[in-house]
Write a structure and sequence with these properties.
This protein is an alpha/beta fold and about 500 residues long. It has a domain of about 190 residues: FAD/NAD(P)-binding domain. It is about 35% helix and about 20% strand. The protein has 15 helices and 21 strands. The chain has a seven-stranded mixed beta sheet. Strand 6 and strand 7 form a beta hairpin. Helix 2 packs parallel to helix 15. The protein is globular and about 65 Å long.
Length: about 500
């Protein structure tokens, strides 16, 4: 099968994962990437000569990458240096309260009891029991499986899974579910925040997204060299199995002949023939015809609601007054207003929750001088419309600084110590998205079935990335690449049908 040619459009995590597995099989794989480096949303900004992770910053679901490398005869711990974090995240509120969640669940229970009382610690234990069971059910039935419809998904859950889902209430929103599980509004805020990991509002996301809390409680790691090192590692491993990369190369359209994929045409008019093409970009680009009219048929014609975008500040600055950890969150009291502003009013929130990644911190150890920071607030995905005004950006920046100051943190923004990214900039990097960083919003129970799957409606064209099943985030994008590779293998008769991850010697899920 060495003569079979595969072209992967986009060197994001999903594209790299698919290219690695297919290159390992001996297929002729070429990756086309319009940027200068691989990684997609995993990227860095350079400030004062320092690289600052300015995309995903949280490494979770390590088992996805353990199993990926196991499938190609390698070991993750020999290719990438990872360090488990003792503190998952540090949370601050404008009233001066603070709470750490820990890798040790007993330590989290003790912290919650000191923070909100014994009953809330008991509620947390019950919440963990539920999310652990939910994650176990959704792992095999959803995360590892090719995209399913509702009947096949229900069948794959089995009686116990269906009973659990019924008890959780799939028609409930995450926020309404948390109202019955916690009484302290700060804990509701904290655990509702996991909806934003899918770019969604807790008031519209299904209660099943609470499983994301379990994902973090199963472990968070830091990557030596930053998250960009993950992309560089996968690129290096791809090259070792013969995958070719063409950077700063734009794919103009996907060629379809006689009803099936025939290759791609580059902006230079060069034609690359291919037996199979994997598109590792946002599905919206296909829908809008950016890869040619024939490829539009690959996805549903009706666009889904966009997920969140963001405004980020990549900073190299000194901090004072507060003991930060690596991952920090700062909350205003009026949580609902953030999502009303974004999804209903399509404007920057007046009271934005602030995420601050202190990338030189490990278990609160502070550097002596300026440190690398990524500050992020959620924003509407309107980057293809009117650009955010300087006034609205300045107001948002001031609100972020005010909130952090109320919590005890001081940091200074100067014209030379930071780089700002907006929905407009993200839209330019990821065309057709408006800056949406998570594909479509996961709003409503049925939304999990509306993402495209690995196998598209165009024969020979396959999809990967955060906008397709099983969803956004670095490990999910990697899983989408594995599912796309599995679909390509099956179409070429190179594999038996088995779940992704069921490799000999692979790690079991947590």
């Amino acid at each position: 099968m060495a003569e079979k040619k595969v072209v992967v459009i986009g060197a994001g995590i999903g594209g790299l994962t698919a290219a690695l597995e297919l290159g390992h099989l001996g297929l002729d794989v070429t990756v086309i990437e319009r940027g200068a480096v691989a990684g997609g949303k995993v990227a860095a900004e350079w400030v004062n000569g320092q690289p600052i992770d300015s995309g995903p910053t949280v490494f979770t679901m390590r088992w996805v990458f353990d199993e990926l490398l196991d499938s190609v005869g390698l070991r993750l711990d020999r290719e990438l240096k990872l360090k488990p974090l003792n503190t998952l995240a540090r949370h601050f509120w404008a009233d001066g309260s603070a709470l750490d969640l820990h890798a040790d669940p007993l330590a989290s229970e003790a912290a919650i009891e000191a923070f909100a009382g014994a009953q809330e610690a008991e509620n947390f234990r019950k919440f963990c029991d539920t999310t652990r069971a939910l994650y176990g059910v959704m792992d095999a039935a959803f995360i590892r499986a090719q995209r399913q419809n509702l009947p096949s998904f229900m069948a794959s859950l089995g009686p116990r899974g269906l009973a659990l889902l019924t008890r959780i209430g799939p028609m409930k929103t995450l926020w309404s579910s948390l109202q019955t599980q916690f009484t302290d509004p700060r804990l509701r805020q904290l655990f509702a925040r996991y909806a934003t990991y899918c770019g969604s509002s807790p008031w519209q996301a299904p209660a099943t997204l609470s499983l994301i809390a379990q994902v973090e409680m199963d472990g968070v790691w830091s990557v030596e060299g930053g998250m960009v090192e993950l992309a560089q590692c996968l690129t290096r491993l791809c090259q070792q199995v013969g995958v070719r990369f063409r950077f700063q190369t734009h794919c103009e359209h996907i060629s379809v002949k006689n009803g099936k994929v025939a290759g791609v045409q580059l902006s230079t008019q060069e034609q690359l023939p291919a037996d199979r093409v994997i598109f590792n970009g946002d599905a919206a680009a296909l829908r809008q015809g950016l890869l040619g009219a024939p490829a539009q048929k690959a996805v549903a014609a009706t666009p889904a609601p966009r997920s969140l975008s963001a405004v980020t500040w990549a900073l190299h600055a000194k901090t004072q007054g507060l003991a930060l950890d690596r991952h920090n969150l700062f909350f205003w009291p009026d949580y609902a207003s953030e999502f009303q502003d974004i999804f209903e009013r399509q404007q920057l929130p007046k009271q934005p929750t602030v995420y601050l990644c202190a990338q030189d911190r490990q278990d609160q150890q502070a550097p002596a001088g300026p440190e690398r920071l990524l500050c992020l607030v959620n924003a509407p995905a309107t980057g293809d419309q009117q650009a955010l005004s300087d006034q609205s950006l300045a107001q948002c920046e001031a609100q972020c600084l005010t909130l952090m100051q109320q919590c005890g943190l001081s940091l200074e923004l100067t014209p030379h110590n930071h780089v700002v990214s907006t929905p407009q900039k993200f839209h330019h990097r990821f065309p057709a998205t408006g800056g949406a960083l998570y594909g479509q919003a996961t709003h409503g129970w049925m939304s999990i079935f509306s993402r495209p799957g690995a196998q598209s409606a165009v024969p020979g064209l396959y999809l990967s990335g955060g906008s397709v099943h099983p969803g956004p985030g670095v490990p999910m994008a990697a899983m989408s690449g594995r599912l796309a590779a599995a679909a390509v293998r099956a179409s070429l008769g190179l594999t038996k049908t088995f779940p992704v991850g069921a490799t000999s010697g692979g790690m079991s899920t947590p």
